[in-house]
Design a protein that fits this description.
single chain; 491 residues; Rossmann fold; alpha/beta; 26 strands; GMP Synthetase, Chain A, domain 3; nine-stranded mixed β-sheet; five-stranded mixed β-sheet
Amino acid sequence: MNIAGLLTDGIARAGDGLALAQGSRKLTYRELGDRVGRLAAGLTALGLRRGDRIVLVMPNRTELVELLWAAFHGGFVAVPVNWHLHPDEVGYIVGHSGAAAVVVSDETAAVARNLPSGVRVVHVGRDDADVPAAEPSPMVETAPEDPAWLFYTSGTTGRPKGATLTHRNLAAMTEAYLHDLDPVADGSIYLHAAPLTHGSGLYLLPSTARGATQIIAPGTSFSPREFVALLEEHQVTHAAFLAPTMLKRVVEEARGRSLPSLRSIVIGGAALYQEDLRAAVAVFGPIVIQMYGQGEAPMTITVMPAAEALAHPGSCGRAFHGVEVRIADPDGEPVPAGGDGEVLVRGDVVMRGYWDNPDATAATLAGGWLHTGDIGHLDSGYLHLTDRAKDVIITGGSNVYPREVEEVLLTHPRVREAAVVGVPDPEWGESIRAFVVAAGDADPPTADELIRHCRDRLASFKKPRDVVFVGELPKNATGKILKRELREIRP
């Protein structure tokens, strides 16, 4: 069982049909299959072997799609990472995963200076890579439980954890998508503008299996104007995946436009507010589909079509096909019907565990259930999320854990204490606010100085948007910082 077989299915369905396009670069399904086979052979010729991890660090490009399929095809393990990460963060992921190779583009070549010794760096230029092969290699046979994709997600300790997604996990996700999100009719055209290293990339799998065309938005930043223009130019049927903040900008751009070909817009990565859903439905019709998932259960916990969402305000939907959801108390036991508790998930879509982290795996998969860390309740089968047990901040659809920002702030010599919280933001959903106690009375740091300090050490989207200086942080009797009180402070 190799998840690359989904590309083989797409080739059988579409053949000479358009598989992949970005600007002037276009590949048919047969050309994509040939390219994938040659890239897999080239990676093998470089000394990589089945099971080796390959870290992919580049913006959305057709080459990223080719290399993702080539990793599966060759029996390697793909480790796609957000190309906006700081080189130090990429270096940690490379070292922790034990990667044999890192693939970079012109935009990300700087990460090569922070890599562990012995890691091969492959540079991908437009239309080619330095892994040529005279003949394509056959697809490698893999077992269902073999790792296929390491999905690195930030952790509360400040270090990311690698959710190990197997070929079985990705197959279960694909089946659930086709069952509950869209069966993907012939002639479907997908537009990808969100990162292919995240939800949009995962949704390549079911759409490719059905022979759909994948349009990759050009550029390295999201443009709602360009997005709507691409919808019109290519008669797009599916907006593959957007964060709520992206949807909000697209709705404003699309007002008064006719987009009759568009059949679905999938939204995930953060909560979609009812007001924003209504605005989207007013512009596009009831084609907006919300999903709730995590890297540990890739994009596949609950699903909520627009018509149901309007009838069940505040819910993130029903469980996907093949997924069980339980609301549990701290011991993992079910709570009374309608009661709040931690959201637990079970099914073939749930990760095998965290890469090289048995303690975190045991805690997160205790009792055979994925403990999501989210708090919610079920109402007639519809899941309502009411809180996050983990203090994750979701800004622009990206997860930021306060601890990793706090640890960087505390490396500044004139910072004694720091606490980071998320505050409502009309554009980004949430923005990052840091509360800081300066060290000593002389020459305290400025807010701009601390923001630059974080930006130089973290991905830009993780830096605080504002810094509030306080004389002390509110704490309980045991010394724990009371972040709820911080969130209520109005600077």
